[in-house]
Task: structure prediction
Amino acid sequence: MGRLVLAEGGTFTPPGAKDFDLPAIFAGVTKPMIMVVLSIVIIAAFFLLATRKLAIVPSKYQFITESVYDFGRNNIARAQIGSKEFRPYLPLVLALFTFTLVNNIFGIIPIFQFPTFAHIGFPIALSVFVVFPVYHIVGIRKFGLGKYLKKSVMPPGIPKPVYLLLTPIEIFLRFFMDPITLAIRVFAAMFAGHLILLVFTLGGEYLLTEAGWALKPVSLVAFVMAIAMTFLEALIQVLQAYIFALLSAGYIGTALAEDH
Amino acid sequence: MVLSSSIINLAEDAPNPVLPHPAEIILGLVAFGLLLFVLAKFVVPRFEALYAERTAAIEGGIEKAEAAQREAEAALQQYQAQLAEARAESARIRDDARAEAEQIKEELRAQAQEESARIVAQGNAQLEAQRAQIVAELRAELGRQAVELASRIVGESLEDEARRRGTVDRFLSELDSVSAPAKS
Result:
């Protein structure tokens, strides 16, 4: 089909990585940067407005914020870290969840229409520079450096020769792969999702404006697909935010657990 | 061919999306730090306080309800005790009243019987007296009549005969003595 379109004249440039390199709006500040700042304003306002006057019997708005808070608290933090120790990590888990959620959802909201986490710098900041040190530090604080390392890389109850194989793998996983995959998972999902939306939208637009009259109706298919993909993206964006917070809480829970 | 070469050219121009921009990492950290601060400082403590308060309120409510129930039960027991007491009291009063009424009835009956006996006795005495009087009168009359009749038959007066008089009285007494056993 691409050839046909080309035969009609004009060149269709498929969207690629270059479309994620947004130009600076002013003084090196790009759209994702503004959106990140905006996201924390939105989240902080969302919670601060609700918590200004909390009632035992919640209002409608308080009920909504409470649902979000409860989800982060009970379904992620408490489920992963355990009901005894989850309280100190509640702000962190809640912040990870809401921050990722809002920045992901930006991808399908008109005007914003760009998932911030499609720039790998942001998920790297969270996973490598926040979650990764946090779960090792809390583990070391609880067990002491030696015992924590032993617990992490030499899980008990395994025949001794196996450690020769297992310990390097554990070290590689826990100190390199865990934080990297945590960041790449959400980055890749957002990057690919946005790319798919770009392909269908720009492709449809090109078909509508540049293609011959016989092919113009095909653009309808592209737009329908773009809308369908938007719904799918909404699901994936929420899911990825949930997974990101869930895994972060899971790493903390594992670091704090008595047995590996 | 043109297309593929242009893609390659574009790919060469575009930055590698897997390499992070340091500016974005720093901004992400700062923004996330601020958000974390707001959540940890204000939002989470407020929600946790609310949850604690709500738990307390629910537990307090349950406690209050339990207290009310205990109170109600105590009141119910008290009422039941009072009711039983009142019932016993009323039964006692009724028994007393019944006994008293019985006694009064008994007394009245005795009194009436006494009265009736008295009246009967009085009547009997009166009758006896009247009878005696009438008998005496009749006896005198009978005697006189008999003498008079006899004197008419005889043709002369017998009245003056004192002896005759005694004869009449004796006869009547004999009659009495004969009739009296027959009567009884």
About this structure: DSSP finds three helices and no strands in chain B.
